[in-house]
Structure formats: C-alpha cells, structure tokens
Amino acid sequence: MSASQRTNSAVGRVYLVGAGPGDPGLLTLRGADCLARADLVLYDGLVNPLLLRYSHALAEQTCRVDGPEGRVLRQDEINRRLIEAAWSGKTVVRLKGGDPFIFGRGSEEAAALSEAGIPFEVVPGITAATGAAVYTGISLTHRDHASAVAFVTGHEDPTKSTSLDYNALAKFPGTLVFYMGLHRLGAIAQSLMEAGKPKSTPVCVVSRATTPRQRAVTGTLQDIAELAIAAELHAPSLVIVGDCVRQREQARWFEGRPLFGQVIGIPRPEEQADDTALRAVELGALPVLLPTIEIAPPESWDEVDAKLLSLREFDWIVFTSVNGVHALLGRLWKSGRDMRAFGNARLATIGPSTAAALEKYSLRADLIPAEFRAEALARELSPHVAGKKVLWARASRGRDVLPVELAKVGATLTQLVVYQNRDLDQLPSSSLQQIERGELDWIGLSSPSIARNLARLLTDDAKNWLGNKTKLASISPVTSAAAREVGLPINVEATDYTWEGLFDAMKTAIADKP
Q: Stretch 159-187: mean pLDDT, rounded?
C-alpha cells in the first residue's frame, strides 16, 4: 500500500494485551474489552485458548514449533503482520502471555508500531512471576524475609554487550525470580553459589504456573537442579530463589482444589461449553472440548414466528433446555416484541440451569421439578395442565416423554421446534489425539444423544482407555442406559442431573479412591 493510500484509508488500532500466566480468570477487564472489539487476534502459544471466547474475531496463533495449531513467526514477521492488519483498517489484539513489557518483547512491537504510525495501546497483564508465586503460596516480599524482589532473565540474548552480574545478584537483599531458567537451572544455581550465595538458600521451581498442570519443586541451590530433573518439569517455568520460599507450605491453596490436575473432556456443543469449561478450571481441572453436536436454527422460522403471534393463547410454556429459552426469546425480541407477549402464560423448566436462562430475560419459572429429568417435569406439570393449552419449545429431536405423559391428563400440547441438534462428523483432531494417548482422566456425558455421538466418533485406540485411565461420568440414569447400549462403560453417575452434579460425582470418586 502506498503512502497516499495509507493516508486516505482508515487506519486501525493495535492493542498489546497481557493475557496473564495461564489461568483464564486472570485476564484484566480492559483486556476482555479489547478482545470483544477486535477484528483480528494474534496470540502466543502460551496463551490459554479459553480467552478467545471473549472475541468473535479471526484468531491466529504463533507457535514455538510448526504444527497443526499454527506456525512459527519471527518477531519481524509478527511486527509486519500487526502493521499490515492495522493499515487495512482492522482492530488488532496482540495477545501475549503474562505482561507484554516483562520479558515479553512487547516494547519491540510497540516501537515497530510507533515507527509505522499505527495507533496502539498497551494493556498490562499479570506477569508470570506474581502468578506463579501466588499460586504456589509464595510471597515474593515479606516483612521478615524479603524487602525487595528482582526479575531476572534466565535466557540472556548472547549478542548483548553486557551480561548478568551474579556477584551483585548473590548479594541482592531479597527474592530473585528467574524467567525462562529451567534449562539453565544448574548453571544459574552454580553461578549464584560461586558468587557467595549460601548453598542452603531455598529455591522453588514452578512449572506451568496457574494452570491445572502446575507443578512446584522446592529444594536448595545445592540440589534444586537434580530435583527438577527428577521431577521431569516442563517449560514454561520460573525459578524463585530466597527465604520467602520457606512460607510456601503455610500459604499454598491452588493445588488443594478438588479436581486439581484432572483432565476432563466436555462433549457439549461449543455454544454451551464455555461456562462448563470455566467451572472446571475453577475446580482445578483442565477442560478439553469434545463437541459432538452443534446447535443450529430451525430450517425455517415461519412456524416459530407464527406461534410468537399467539403466545397469549397458551396456559403454559415449557422449556427443557437453555437453548430452547435463548432460541424462542431471542426470536421474540428480534421480531420487535418483548416478554409482554406471554400474557398470563405460566412457565415451566426442566431444571435450574434452564430457569437461570429465563432470568436473563427477567422471567421467573413457575415450576421446576425436584428431579431434573423429563419424567419428573411431566409428573409435576400434569396436575396443572388438564384441559389446558401447553407450548413446548423444543429441539429438532429428543425424547417424547412430555407428549405421552401430558396427553394422559388431557393437555393440548403444541410442539415447536426452535433449534436443531446436528451431529458433527468428527471430534477436534487435537482433542481426539489426547484421548488416544490416554491423557484424559474423565469425560462427562450430559445427555443420551451426546453419549451415542461420542461412541460414534471415538476411534478404537481412544476406546481402549475408557473405563480405566479415562473414566466416564454420566449425568443421569437415562444417559447411563444410552451409553451402555453403545458400549460405553459408566464409572460414576451424578445424583444431581446437572454439570455441577457431574463434577460432584467426579470429586466423590477421587476422594474415595484408596
């Protein structure tokens, strides 16, 4: 693009955003806001992909090695990509692990943008040092142990004219934190000891900090290198040196979460998986998305639109899924009307999650069965609908318990398909490979159709792990029966027919394990 063309075109803006060290909950509000307005997201390989749920933009990953997730981009290529996208008028988010300006090369990208005349903003992030320390129970500063902290690179640029002064570091009156130091841990420890740092100085190496795969090894300068090798720690990692490490056992909290370190497959549609995945993270687990179906609008909205004009004619409107709520009420809003269209109709939902979806539209469910399944909904609804008109906002397929049971009491039931469940042809390749390698601890089955589809999409290599290394948790007896019909062994079954109930069943099984 020529200079004149650039002058006449609308120049975009670039946001250099710190994504934090791994836990998706550590993204700042400003970072989330930038992602929401982005046209392009260029993110590092260390960034948690769950953060992309904040954006509907095209996302491209830069990797350390070429592979299915993306390709290696040199820094000059990244700079050029940012500039070209901005000159084309795009709003660009450069999403970087940790903080962009702390060992993140963000300042180099800012300089390139400034030279090219591209407007930009830098959004700080929680840097790996503070994230790793807090998530392992280490206070980098402490009234009794450290009045200062130094962030040090463990992987210096060999072309620099000056190098680290280990004599000064050994005398530093506080905590030393080495970034990217795992592969030079032995040399770092030896250099500090040769410069006079006591061999007994406490050291902690934290790997994959703030994620469910976090591991921490403690020792001293004298033995930490051997301990880290024996523990087979992986990058990214940090090395924390100083007396503050002694406080770890008193303040550790993250590793005590009930599902810490568990890898859990979530075979929900992508449209529904976000909240479940984040809940898994809160419990200390690593979610792996395994969508087996997708949610789509009806083939035609004509029938739905016609029924929206006569909602007042119904005595009850029944919702058996969150998708049904959003589909019907979203279409109602799009048609130019609001909840007044319901008139005096009463509302029933199959469970609390569906009721919570109604509340987002300022509607309260009149009936929620004590047991969250179609049989219980039909049983508790039956006394109220004899001789009444009932509208069921449903999927394109599913069980027919409601029509059969409500017909018995003389209700007039209108079934309205407001969304489709479509089977997918394959699982995400990376997720399937994880199952085939036996890397998943659990897979949650939240409906009969998901159980049947999962069985259809799994390879023989993946199925070999089921019931043993990879355990299956079922949300209900109906789902368990469907799973067993297609050869899936069920290890645990939820007593509360929700995803929270599934997580509770997993927690109980882990706690009971000898």
A: 87
